[in-house]
Amino acid sequence: MSVSQTTFHEALLDPSAAVPDGLLDAEDRPAGRRFSVYRNNVAVSLTEAMHQAFPVITRLLGPQNMDGLAGIFLRKHPPSSPLMMFYGEEFPAFLAGMEQLSHIGYLADVARLELALRRSYHAADSQGVAPDALALPPEEIVLAKLEFAPSMRVVRSDWPLFSIWRFNSEEDAPKPAPGAEDVLITRPDYDPAPHLMPKGGADWIAHVQAGHTIGEAFEHTSAEFPEFDLGATLALLLQGGAITSVTIERLAT
Amino acid sequence: MLDSSLRSNRLPAAPGVGYKPQHFDQILDHAHPVGWLEIHAENYMGDGGRPLAQLRHLSEQFPISVHGVGLSIGGEGPLDPDHLSRLKHLVGWLNPASFSEHLAWSTHDSHFLNDLLPLPNTDETLARVCEHIDQVQETVGRQMLLENPSSYLAFEESTWSEPDFLREIARRTGCGLLLDVNNVFVSATNLEFSPQGYIDAYPLENVHEIHLGGHDEDEDDHGRPLLIDSHGREVVDPVWALLDYVLDRSGPKPVLIEWDTDVPEWPILRAEAERAQAALDRIPA
């Protein structure tokens, strides 16, 4: 009796499936719960990986509920690569699709933030420009094009995402108030840090990433967000080492 | 078959430990008698950040062993080309003293199961594993070491003993072997064979690294002991005794302490390394 890996794999992820024939103990009896060691290893290690990957979700739901959710998730979405550091890409969509959790609408956004923090942690190193790199006359600043660090991440949300994250990660953080908050993640050295993004900042960054100058991006952004604070956004990016190059194409004189 | 010129640098015949980031500062200050470190390859396949910065720093002071846990060498399907190139990249820039993987499978239908799953010791498995090892050694450009599994059950279809199976793989591919002494003890208990008999039959001349780790104790459906390779506690006395039995026959080897779950404070891990040093000290060099 040979046991294919397809058979082994199916029985591994389905606790109600029979133990495959052809697996034995030392006295040639059916392996029985010896097979469960593998079942258990897979479920426990992936559940543990989910706890580590999504600590704020775990705190919001409680560890036992997280165990239950992870048990469903890992069978529906086993890792697609051995890079466990990136496991859980499908978790935000999975959470958004769970009817039982629809009363906690912000869970999926929190999961996206936790994924973005991990992506930032493992992103390529880069050198931020000096804090005074944009200490230029205003007419020159508007002509500048910027490049951002690979570790910079933007997470948009219709929920007060930054406040929710902070309330569940820091002691004595204020209770979240209603309202939409986008989050900017910068990584000055090796530790990604979330910041509250100024209103419109996510759009402005997207415009700059699309190749627009600071000034063009500002015009596009302030058309939609008149309150957009360019100075505050640049300060966050500069302090976080998230701007890696400033290029100014000076007008021909 | 591996070109013998690719059998490059080796680990020292000293104790090593599995590196955990929480021990970074203490390793730099109080390593003795730890002479080398082992990393899990997959944890250092990001693009940058602290893991790679720490690894670069450590590699300036310690020989490093790269131990893969995700290649699925025994998988029925082809090796994952993306993962192979990630390994090639890591081994390329780090130039470690050793590179090893497992006689196991972990990926099926592009699902990675995060566990080392068992293989039947058949001619079919042998041919497939050898083909995969050839591919790994050609791609990575150096010899790899293959680790013996810990077994909880046996396959009815197996026709080879495990020591003979490993000997034949090493003969056909030119790979070296990583002898996990705890795995031998776990498998011997679970499948009721003599661990000393296993060692007597095992090709010790191909061993370039030894692993030790802790295991958990459970029972099967019939009340028989079922040991589980958990890497979550101290190495037990019978495994230390089996290490002595191995070293008496093999001579000095690099000996690694693996501790991957419930990772202890550095002094506890270092005390395990001291015990490994004592085991190395009792044999004539």
Largest sheet of chain A: 3 strands, antiparallel
Q: How much helix, percentage-wise, in residues of chain A?
A: 40-55%
Tell me how many strands of chain B there are: 13
Q: Assign the structural class of chain B, choosing from mainly alpha, mainly beta, alpha/beta, alpha+beta, or little secondary structure.
A: alpha/beta
CATH superfamily of chain B: Divalent-metal-dependent TIM barrel enzymes
Low-pLDDT ranges of chain A: none
Helix fraction of chain B, binned, reads: 25-40%
Class per helix and strand makeup of chain A: mainly alpha
Total helices of chain A: the number is 11
Largest interface: A-B, 47 and 53 residues
Radius of gyration of chain B: 18 Å
Strand content of chain A: 5-15%
Q: What is the spatial order of strands in the main beta sheet of chain B? A: 1-2-3-4-7-9-10-13
Order of secondary-structure elements of chain A: HEHHHHHHEEHEEHHHE
Strand line-up across the major sheet of chain A: 3-4-5
Describe the structure.
The complex is a heterodimer of chains A (253) and B (285). Chain A is mainly alpha-helical. Chain A has a domain at 124-253. Chain A is built from 11 helices and 6 strands. In chain A, the strands form 2 sheets. Chain A has a 3-stranded antiparallel β-sheet, with helices on one face. Chain A has a two-stranded antiparallel sheet with strand order 2-6. In chain A, β4 and β5 (193-196) form a beta hairpin. Chain A is elongated and about 85 Å long. The relative contact order of chain A is 0.11. Chain B has 285 residues and is of the alpha/beta class. Chain B has a single domain (4-281), classed as TIM Barrel (Alpha-Beta Barrel). Helix content of chain B is 38%, strand content 20%. Chain B has helices spanning 24-29, 50-59, 81-94, 123-140, 162-173, 181-191, 195-201, 237-250, 266-281, and strands spanning 15-18, 36-40, 64-67, 98-102, 105-108, 111-117, 145-147, 154-155, 176-180, 207-213, 216-219, 225-228, 255-258. In chain B, the strands form 3 sheets. In chain B, strands 1-2-3-4-7-9-10-13 form an 8-stranded parallel barrel. Chain B has a two-stranded antiparallel sheet with strand order 5-6. A two-stranded antiparallel sheet of chain B has the order 11-12. In chain B, α4 crosses α5 (162-173). The longest helix of chain B is centred in the middle third of the chain and has 18 residues, at 123-140. Chain B is globular, with a radius of gyration of 18 Å. Chain B starts with 14 loop residues before the first strand and ends with a helix. The mean pLDDT of chain B is 96. At the A-B interface, α1, β1 and α2 of A face α2, α3, β5, β6 and β8 of B.
